[in-house]
Amino acid sequence: MLITFTSKAASEVLMYKEHAKRILELLHKDVDQGVITAAEAPHALQVLEQEIAESRQHAVSEDVERDVHAHHNEDGDDANHEEIQAVSFSTRAYPLVEMLRAAKAGGHDVVWGV
């Protein structure tokens, strides 16, 4: 399922619910619907930027490694599967972070599920 983030400050941001859930949980927001007000934007940005910095310090999680091994043979290559390319937290969060920066600068809210 997709979540659409909207703000008068930027274009819509679409995100899979499972990916948005982690971001919104960090911000203590409901995944189904909510608002990040212009006043909350600076704190939200601080939280997300801290999480992005922290996630860049950690190697690929064991879950991703286990998934790679489950889909590839022991030599690491399998002609039937494409090479796994993990998408980092910072890459997934980037569009929403940019929206929050624009919302903060313009004094606008970010809403979803309404």
From TrEMBL:
Name of the protein in question: DUF1840 family protein
Lineage: Bacteria, Pseudomonadati, Pseudomonadota, Betaproteobacteria, Burkholderiales
Classification via InterPro entries: DUF1840
Alphabetical list of Pfam families matching this protein: DUF1840
Annotated region described as Disordered, given as residue ranges: 56-82
